[in-house]
Predict the structure of Calcium-dependent protein kinase 21.
Amino acid sequence: MSLACRLAAVLCLAALPSAGFAQSLKWSGDVTPPASPSAPAAPPAPADAPQRTGDYLTLMDTNRDQRVSPEEYQDWLSYAFDGMDRNRDGVLTADEQPGGRGKTVTRDEHRLRIAERFRRQDRDRNGFLDAQELSSPPQ
């Protein structure tokens, strides 16, 4: 399985309301989504995963403008990458990835993939995601 597929699977599973997901992967340390430099507070950790569709908007929308920007989306979905990056160098090496193998990927490469996913999910092409777009699969 390619690295992109594995990361997509990890990110999809991380969005599920499973409190034990991070522990099941045996990540070291706390896994908390990073705060956006312009945002007052960081979104909750994966253990506080949304239970309803509207919860995704509430949790990702750190500036509380009722829409999710590309940066907010990337920050939220990067917590899985950050959790696997045990040495905090911004690079996932094979030994840091599930199964202990895979191609090396940088945090920037990972964020570019998330940006592409955002673009596909932004159906009205306004540069933001609303609750309906967040609940729909990417096109």
Observations:
- Confidence is low (pLDDT under 50) at residues 1-31, 36-45.
